[in-house]
Design brief:
Layout: H1 2-13, H2 15-18, H3 22-45, H4 54-72, H5 76-100, H6 105-125, H7 127-130, E1 148-149, E2 154-155, H8 158-181, H9 183-193, H10 195-200, H11 205-231, H12 236-239, H13 241-255, H14 262-281, H15 291-306, H16 310-325
Antiparallel strand pairs: 1-2
Length: 326
């Protein structure tokens, strides 16, 4: 199994060499990025804390690097640290009251949903600094033919971004695996079944929940920062708010929340589905510009209802049943 994983990783690393053009390479970069972000969300979701507000952390990371660079000339490398710190503070402000007062289940989901929308509204309200609904573009540092600006984290070559996102994705998988194999997972599973019983055997419920929340928030904020630097354009709708938060939830559920590569499969599936529908229907149904998005949403709902384990989760369950039958 380990050799199979190494072979798959080697083939993936060779993708820029065989990629037929920039568009497939761009899709691969986005799959790796969203695979990482979805993995970040699933660290919380699979342990019983369904957050509908991760768009807040994603947006904080994205806007922190762009605003600090545009207004103060602060390197995005430092901006990432600032965005991560701001996400930690936000997670603590939301998490500590929720966990101490035992706000769980649907109520916790609604609190996080409000957090995501409040973040989007703040970004829109600060239009003089953030550009409001029109968004913002990082000032370019690639003038005079420079193809690389390391200090500004700007690269013309998509190959550089591919390997950067590949490293980020591998880091996300490593964190997921560490959490999955640690005592935190066992503690969180006990907490998700019965908090009082878990506390009675010595589990610090608040600290365990905060630990997982902070890990997930930090990772998501980092993903938002790199998204902004790669796309070189952000706006409240694409990096924050309810839509981006629900995209994370749907992607993870579509791929498989409880499997290491499930969120990545969900990222590939949702991205390919969205791109396929956009290309197939976008030009032919101009009078219904949101038809492709409606079909995309419908298919995701059907997956949630009829395949709750996700694509990879269902495939592994089927393989296990077949193996036992054999």
């Amino acid at each position: 199994m380990k050799w199979l994983a190494l072979c798959g990783l080697a083939l993936l690393a060779l993708f820029p060499v065989v990629a037929p053009g920039n568009y497939p390479l761009h899709l691969a970069i986005m799959c790796l990025l969203w695979g990482y972000v979805y993995t970040s969300w699933s660290i919380m979701g699979r342990l019983g804390m369904v957050s509908l507000g991760h768009g807040a952390f994603f947006g904080i990371g994205a806007y922190a690097v762009v605003m600090l660079w545009n207004h103060f000339g602060v390197s995005p490398w430092i901006g990432i640290a600032v965005g991560v710190a701001a996400s930690i503070v936000t997670a603590l402000v939301i998490g500590i009251p929720c966990f101490r007062f035992k706000i769980v289940g649907h109520y916790f989901a609604l609190v996080t949903l409000a957090l995501s929308e409040v973040t989007r509204l703040i970004i829109v309200a600060l239009r003089d600094q953030t550009g409001g609904s029109l968004g913002a573009t990082p000032h370019t540092a690639l003038a005079q033919g420079n193809a690389v600006a390391v200090g500004a984290m700007q690269f013309q070559s998509k190959v550089i971004w591919f390997y950067a996102m590949l490293a980020l994705w591998l880091f996300g998988l490593w964190v997921w695996a560490r959490v999955d194999r640690g005592m935190t997972r066992l503690a969180m599973e006990a907490i998700s079944h019965e908090e009082d019983a878990a506390a009675s055997i010595g589990i610090n419920v608040t600290r365990s929940k905060l630990f997982v929340t902070l890990i997930s928030a930090v990772m998501t904020s980092l993903g938002g920062a790199l998204y902004a630097q790669y796309q070189l354009y952000i706006n409240p709708e694409t990096v924050s708010g309810i839509a981006i938060s629900l995209q994370m939830v749907f992607g993870v559920i579509a791929g498989g929340m409880y499997v290491l590569l499930g969120p990545t499969v969900g990222a590939v599936f949702t991205l390919m589905l969205a791109e396929g529908l956009r290309l197939a229907l976008g030009e032919h149904f101009k009078s219904f510009p949101a038809l492709d998005l409606a079909l995309y949403g419908l298919m995701l709902v059907l997956f949630i209802i009829y395949m709750p384990k996700g694509i990879l989760g269902a495939a592994m369950a089927r393989f296990g049943r077949d193996g036992k039958a054999a």
